[in-house]
Structures are given as structure tokens and as C-alpha cells.
TrEMBL record:
The name this protein goes by in its record: Uncharacterized protein
Region Disordered, residue ranges: 12-98
Superkingdom in the source lineage: Eukaryota
Protein source organism: Liparis tanakae (Tanaka's snailfish)
Length: 98
């Protein structure tokens, strides 16, 4: 008798929990429906897309900056070489005069 009572009580609790879950699910669905009607979900998608674009743009900028730095370093190297050559030419001219 007692076991039957416990089982029925447990089943009752489970049923109640199930109903609560259903109610929660229905509320969530209703809220989502209202949001969709307001067009909030669309805004969310646009924001996500914009975020992806900004991230991609940032990566592109970083890559370009890296390439520019590499090129800049090369350019700097070339400028230094030119300066050295000019200095060498001037030194040679001076020696030639002496």
C-alpha cells in the first residue's frame, strides 16, 4: 500500500515537472514569436553578420599592416644601402682628390 502511494506521488511530481517544463517552453516560444514579430531576430542576425564583417576587416588590416611592415623593412634596407653607396662614392672621390 505504502509503495503504491510513493509511486503515485513520484509520478505526480514528474507530471507536475513536465507541465512546468511545457509551460516554460510555451513562454519561451511566445517570447520568441513576439520578438520575431518585432523583427528583433532579424536585427540579431544583422548584428552577427556585421560583427563577422568587422572581424574579417580587422584581420585584413592586420595582414596588410604585416605586409607593409615587411615591405617597409625592405625599403628601409634599400635606403640604407643607397646611403652607404653614396658615402662610399664620396669617400672614393675624396681619396681621388688627395
Amino acid at each position: 500500500m505504502y509503495r503504491l502511494y510513493i509511486r503515485e506521488r513520484r509520478e505526480g511530481e514528474r507530471m507536475r515537472r513536465g507541465e512546468e517544463r511545457m509551460r516554460r517552453g510555451e513562454e519561451m516560444m511566445r517570447r520568441e514569436g513576439e520578438r520575431m514579430r518585432r523583427g528583433e531576430h532579424r536585427r540579431g542576425e544583422e548584428e552577427r553578420r556585421r560583427g563577422d564583417d568587422e572581424e574579417r576587416r580587422g584581420e585584413d588590416m592586420m595582414r596588410r599592416e604585416g605586409e607593409r611592415m615587411r615591405r617597409g623593412e625592405q625599403r628601409r634596407g634599400e635606403e640604407e644601402r643607397r646611403r652607404r653607396e653614396k658615402r662610399r662614392d664620396k669617400d672614393e672621390e675624396r681619396r681621388g682628390w688627395e
